[in-house]
Design brief:
Distance between the termini: 20 Å
Radius of gyration: 14 Å
Helix content: 25-40%
Largest sheet: 5 strands, mixed
Number of domains: 1
Number of strands: 5
Low-confidence stretches: none
Order of helices and strands: HHEEEHEE
Length: about 120
């Protein structure tokens, strides 16, 4: 399962680097780990925003898009906040993707920083 492969890769990155770095460092390391595992990864993928029939340009960027299916939002914060979940859910809705994973690498045990978010299409 794709989300299981992602979680395994995130745990490996956290095991090697530990907490305390910037989000960008974890994003780069996770991208590398996923590629080493044979997955297709797009980092900082721009997504156009459409509003009332007009394309407004790149409205946001997805941290990681895995196999064109799974959106990953990388964080390095004290704790995941409801706004982080809302952000990921909005990304899922705007892209039509079904599943996203929020990963907070600033946890002593990474399992505490994982949050699965589903878009109920």
């Amino acid at each position: 399962m794709l989300s299981g492969e992602l979680i395994g890769a995130a745990i490996e990155v956290h095991r090697v680097l530990g907490p305390g770095l910037l989000e960008s460092a974890y994003e780069l390391a996770l991208e590398r780990e996923l590629v080493l595992r044979g997955l297709s990864v797009e980092r900082q993928k721009p997504v156009s925003l459409e509003y009332k029939g007009a394309l407004l340009g790149d409205g946001f960027r997805i941290d990681l898009l895995i196999n064109d299916q799974l959106i990953v939002e990388v964080k390095a914060v004290d704790r995941i906040q409801p706004i982080h979940e809302a952000q990921l859910l909005t990304y899922l809705r705007l892209t039509g993707k079904q599943l996203g994973l929020l990963i907070n690498f600033n946890e002593r045990v990474l399992k505490s920083g994982l949050k699965r978010v589903a878009n109920r299409l």
